[in-house]
UniProtKB/TrEMBL annotation, chains A, B:
Xref: CDD domains: ASADH_C_bac_euk_like (cd18131), VcASADH2_like_N (cd02316)
Ligand binding (NADP(+)): T14, G15, A16, V17, R42, S43, S161, G162, N325
Name the record gives this protein: Aspartate-semialdehyde dehydrogenase
Function description: Catalyzes the NADPH-dependent formation of L-aspartate-semialdehyde (L-ASA) by the reductive dephosphorylation of L-aspartyl-4-phosphate.
Residue ranges constituting the Semialdehyde dehydrogenase NAD-binding domain according to the UniProt record: 7-122
UniProt key word DNA-binding: no
Organism: Alkalihalobacillus trypoxylicola
Amino acid sequence: MQRSTYNVAVVGATGAVGQQMLKTLESRDFPIDQLKLLSSKRSAGKKLYYKGQEYTVEEATPESFEHVHLALFSAGGSVSKLLASEAVKRGAIVVDNTSAFRMDPHVPLVVPEVNESDLNEHNGIIANPNCSTIQMVVALEPIRQQYGLKKVVVSTYQAVSGAGLEAIDEMKEQTQAILNGEQAKAEILPCSGDKKHYQIAFNAIPQIDLFQENGYTFEEMKMINETKKIMHMSDLEVAATCVRLPIETGHSESVYIETNKSGATVQEIKDLLSSSPGITLQDDPDQQVYPMVTTAVGKNDVFVGRIRRDLDRENGYHMWVVSDNLLKGAAWNSVQIAESLVKLNLLAK
Amino acid sequence: MQRSTYNVAVVGATGAVGQQMLKTLESRDFPIDQLKLLSSKRSAGKKLYYKGQEYTVEEATPESFEHVHLALFSAGGSVSKLLASEAVKRGAIVVDNTSAFRMDPHVPLVVPEVNESDLNEHNGIIANPNCSTIQMVVALEPIRQQYGLKKVVVSTYQAVSGAGLEAIDEMKEQTQAILNGEQAKAEILPCSGDKKHYQIAFNAIPQIDLFQENGYTFEEMKMINETKKIMHMSDLEVAATCVRLPIETGHSESVYIETNKSGATVQEIKDLLSSSPGITLQDDPDQQVYPMVTTAVGKNDVFVGRIRRDLDRENGYHMWVVSDNLLKGAAWNSVQIAESLVKLNLLAK
């Protein structure tokens, strides 16, 4: 018999995404029986609140997952690699928000608006895609269904919260230093695991994550490979340039697409997107209505606007896609996957 | 007989670009006989320095241009429309940094690295292109010459100084307010002439200048139309998405191109660009070397990096182009035009 409430563990509860996971579980009133907040040894002992009740964060160990039905992981790839299989071994379904398993052919990579039914193929672990990928595929999927999709060229405008709470602090400290006429210290961005660090305040850094041999960054390759996997289009042409900006939260994307069928009008695409799940259309140039992070942050939807025809190619379109990278890009998509698991009778069955 | 020094007027001397014009004329040791600093009535009376000497800014009138050989205009389109012909009537050559005459078929639109010889066709006025256009065409021209150019898709990351000194102040005030936990006031950006104003601090605004009927902004149409004119390629496919960011000075551009000839290697393009005029190649991913505004500002060159092949199209390439929008994007390109006029014996002949 299907349970009506579930034991849920949040791994990485003290992080930027973990905190949004708790808020989202609360705002969605997810049917939780027992809640466990887990973290690294370093953060263990911290107190967090859920529905007004205090919880002490515990160090995540294999045994932490006894009797857990659903484990939401967002504590870095190494933690997921170490502990996700331990959770599965003990009967939990893992929704993993790191890149550890995303390209594993046995792990579904899911954005519910696009490929919810892939959840049926899970083997214990379900991967939550990269933040910048998620918001893009939500906007692309209705267009793919209606007109077919041939090529995608995306340039991103990404917030520092994607690099964690420490990156937010670094940006704010640098910003204040520069406003004070002082030198800015850079120790984290663009990528804590890389050799050099650059000032993000009042700057644009064309590097997110480490460089790969082909000259693309890992973030760019994530967008390319994950988009193909989620949309089940191994032959889709995708290229990405990922850029970090002095924005606290909210990713924006300038997306150029070529469709298979030519000639759809902008109005037809607007109508299509405005009636598609998870999308809010914000597109009225006369009234200066377009998506911005200042209006998107704190909301679950993907905001799409500035839709216009390419001036040369009959099947070319440009658009501007904005979403909260901690919500639809991470916490909300993970909780949404959990809700889909419940709906599809896949959780604790 | 060719003169060896010239009477020069700078119109809009107190503005963001005007101040850089003075610095650039000084650093280039432009052969000035008499210097006149002109402005609107509002700014007249201000004191500015050139080579250690104090100058009093005068209100620009038709008579201001008597005996002037070279007039550098950067005081807004309406001032240029009113006074450029008055200057020409009195024998001056005008280098105009506004959009007033750029698309006039009788006015050359010049980036010296690309189309210096168009200066020979001038009728008194020479237009300096839009900042975001200039840095892009400098990077594109060597590729066009070697491989032919078919399509350009650009997404920009533009600094607030392109909107003037008041926009810089607004950004700084908003930034400090937000760091203090206060409300940010927006009265200028994205576009002082438009109805609504939005916070630029910690935000990305996909609007620069006013919207046109086709859904593109005027800034985007400037990039599209000016690129075709400067490169003498009316059939070049160009599309642009222009975005304002919380950066004081320095524009960045994510550029996707398709060439006519296929198969050039990244190394061949790097070699080509590193030996081309006005370009500094900064492209070593292993060492995290790529262009950024923090390293480009204050320099005259266009910085190019992150050059890589499109993963799907044989003739597709991506690159990242950064330059100081007040220098190569405005003041330096104008002074460079003036230097070309001297070199080509076109000034005060």
